[in-house]
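SEVERITY: medium
COMPONENT: batch folding queue
REPORTER: lab tech (J.R.)

DESCRIPTION
The queue accepted two submissions in a row. Attaching both inputs and their returned structure tokens so the on-call engineer can compare them side by side.

ATTACHMENT 1
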Amino acid sequence: MKSDFLIALTQLAAERHLPREQVLSAIEVALASAFKKDNPASGQNISVKLNPNTGDVNVYALKMVVDSVEDPEKEITVIDAQRIKTGASLGDEVAAEEPLPHNASRIAAQTAKQVVLQRLREAERELLFQEFLQHEEDIVSGVIEQSEPGRAITLDLGRAQAILPYEEQVPTERYRKGQRTKVYVLSVRSAAKGPEILVSRSHKNMLKRLFEIEVPEVYNGVVEIKAIAREAGFRSKVAVSATQPGIDPVGSCIGVRGNRIQSIVNELQGEKIDIVSWDEDPKVFISKALSPSEVVAVELFPSDLTAMVVVPDRQLSLAIGKEGQNTRLAARLTGWRLDIKGMTEWEEIREARRLKTAAEATEKVEEETAATAVAVLDVPEAEVQEADAPAANDTQEESPVAVVDAETVEVAEPVAEKADEDEILEALIREEEGREALEAAAAGEEASPSFSVDDLDSFTLGDVGTIEDDEEQEQEQDEEEFVLVPDTPAMAVVTPDAGKIRFAEDLIEDARGGGRRNNRARRGGAARKGPANRGGGRR
């Protein structure tokens, strides 16, 4: 038959939700404190042992084993210690039974009661702390006890109270006293009055735990939640992927006819949730994260984790979302900064880039050319002066010099170009001779005599011949030399006296003895009258 003490002990442990051994230990400490209160002069280290079955109380005095005893209340010899405890040695502590009175005084009994209650409260707080510490980062259910707008809310979790700070509340939700709600446990801290529990309704991990509760594939690990971006009360985006082939992660989270996702939405009081498939390719993942808008192209800039996303012009507002919400959540979900562009703007940017690239390429080519020229010209100054000296002299000798005044025009022909001009003149003469030969054959006349190009240097107007009955031609046949003017479409002859230019074709005709001009003069009258016929030529 159980003793009354054991029944009372069991009942007390059940009321406090504490183990019976822990309650028994608290009573033993309280009795030891009561015995010390009754014998304050002894100064002994008292310990009490209770027998839960019979309720007997055994009081012991703890003594230190030493060689020579100085304080018999606290010390004991080795021989006496070995009589109490076999194998006791120096430095050990043995419990010697003391004949202390069992009937404690009123003050000692009150002290024992206070110690028991204090120890029980400490044990209860520690037990609650360990219990809720296991629920940290988990969802618990509680009843709202006190709710005031703009202030923290107190929730009753059964054996403890939790605090819902204003920062962790959802702006669109309304909390009423007595309302039962689910909260996410942020942290559990030990305090003097019990465990201090902080909870949240806006944390993104609350959404993750709700998926684990409602979706078995997520709880078992078949479907893994890769990332979550949430704006509590408005919209959330969840990226999921399957760890096994043949599993549709998005369909598993939505459920048949959306029953799984609808349960989560109801718990969050109508918050919208977008579920997207996670992908290793950032471009594909960003395109899916911006759903429900369509994405045309994605251009990544890994240096600063920025991505330019191109969408059709008609879906630009859909991609950005209300007050930029869709883009903001997609950026949090992917970890990239997103720059949304329309098709028209993107084409303008591409054209500007193309022009910039072309300009840079041209500039680079110019720089390379300049660098090459500098490298070629990078020779000692003495060599440059030696190389430039003869070149300057040659230039002065060979470059054409023209002196023009009212009376004279002199041109020195370049040596380098003279050979080419001779060849051109010779070709013209041969062509003209062939044409004249054909005309002479047709008219029954003999071809005019030809001359060589080599005779041009000493060629004078006196060698050309005279025109009968023409005073102008006689004045133009002065015995003066002529030179050819370079770099002109037709070779021109400059006569110093006349100060006028005559072309090579006229000279060729004159060299042949008057040729067609004399014939025309004979047939049609005198030749063209010059200034001499009108009263004197210019000198």
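ATTACHMENT 2
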Amino acid sequence: MLNGRVMARVEVAQARRIIKKMVDLRRKGKIHPEVTIAFIEERNEIRIDTREGRVLRPLIIVKRGVPQLKDEDIKKLEKGSFTWKDLIKHAKIEFLDAEEEEGALIAVDAKDLTSKHTHLEIHPITLLGVPGSLIPYANYSRGDRVNYGTSKGVKQGVGIYSLNYPIRFDTFTNILHYPQTPIIRTKLHDILGFDHHPAGQNFTVAMMVWEGFNMEDGMVFNQASLERALARSTYFRPYLTVENRYPGGQEDRIEFPGKDVTGFSEDTDYSNLDEDGIVHPETWAASDAVLVGKTSPPRFLGAMSIFRMGVESRRDTSERVRHDERGWIDSIVVSENIDGRKLVNVKVREDRVSEIGDKFSSRHGQKGVIGMVVPQEDMPFTESGIIPDMLTNPHGIPSRMTFNQLIEIMAGKAGSLEGSTLDGTPFEGDPIEEARRILIKHGMKPSGKEKMYDGRTGKAYEVEIFTGVIYYHKVRHMVANKIHARARGPVQMLTRQPTEGRSKLGGLRMGEMEKDALVSHGASLLLHERFGSDKTRVPVCLKCGLTATHDFVKDRSYCPVCGSEEIEWVEVSYAFHILLQELISLGIYPKITLRDKG
């Protein structure tokens, strides 16, 4: 089969010979090196694949238990007389995809090689990919936790993603203040140049329970550490405005809106604008404040009386700061788009001091949020006077089995005492013994535990606390971007129910389970209020049972079907009223029968 299509049929006995021949042709360079050839025994299929998007892994070719990549080849690579392409051309290394890998026997280490092995790993760390290879001691952790560590740390960690961030206008950005290089790092950290865009800081951590404020995955933070700019970041949000042109010669205008404009709001909303209608740099912009004043022509040009009177009616379509966001005006760019229309980009900057609800994660998939920020004088401290930046709960370790997190805390402590970084590359050496040796050398206990004292009472804890240094990421999921509540607010035109979503000032949905929580608390009457967000009064005809009509001019109610004026007003959900109208449109007669509540 070629790329999933049947191309030919051969005898089963010939299959192995054909595959060997094709692999030899690939190794000789007669076939492209990225073509993969696999034999699926269960289905008796030879699968040849050339499609793009397959993940290919480089492996050292092994023949009769001997790796084809020799020491002299590595020396040639170091000198520069040999390149990666030469290794492939001379059949030292080849690419395998997942399907061909099924039929290969790959040794992790050269000392494990036997005559049955077909390939050898270049280095075991290549199993993990780029983000996974940055996780120290990953071989001491479960595979799923390594996966979580890559997504929460490397992908979502707040850092310096690009050095030209001040002149960029990305959708939204977080920049970490004072990012640090990890004390425990892997070889890939330097190869990838991760220090050029770091995304975390070294936290002093104690693993202990503290008053229940770090239950589950909660974390207790030292307030003084946050005041010293630990985990402090800046949030950037750009706003874009364009002068659009409409059919009929109408167009937008970026200007200071006049008071005669439809939709003009309070004067204070426009207080930051200059004469050209654009906000001034380094001014404070509150929630919903106008950044760029813009007026547009009326939405519908049906009424010709506007032109006859010679008065142009315009509406306010100014660009405003998003609701629940605020900040300083960082930079403004006035330019033109591809059509030659005026374009204004305004970037708003907000400093973010970490607060209760902000999310953090180690490189080992141990994520959690701040449960309490405690004054430094109330935090536990060690005999040498070290006050941890953060307290994490030890109950998060046994079930997740992230043993490498404990090693990093211990090794990080050793690296801090030694004043150097330590190598945490997976599958290499014995990091625990090395860390213990350094701790003993500096007069510390080799277990990583220390005697700690309660900051409020001064009494020593009965047990020793495991404490050390670990690299933590501040994750982009901050509570300031998510917190949402409302009392009254906008509703949808069709259903008259609250709008959906934080950006539209939406209501909070109350489902079956929330309803059960209220009932179990004995607050079932509250459901009348909660489920009445679209409560409305409708007239109902007592004679034919259909919803009637009310003429507000003549102040009389009547049934448009039977003409009866025997009308009763009832309170229903507006959604039910829509349902009745939809049933009528389908030709179904929804008759409402009314009777007294008594």
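NOTES FROM REPORTER
The mean pLDDT is 91.
No errors were logged for either attachment.
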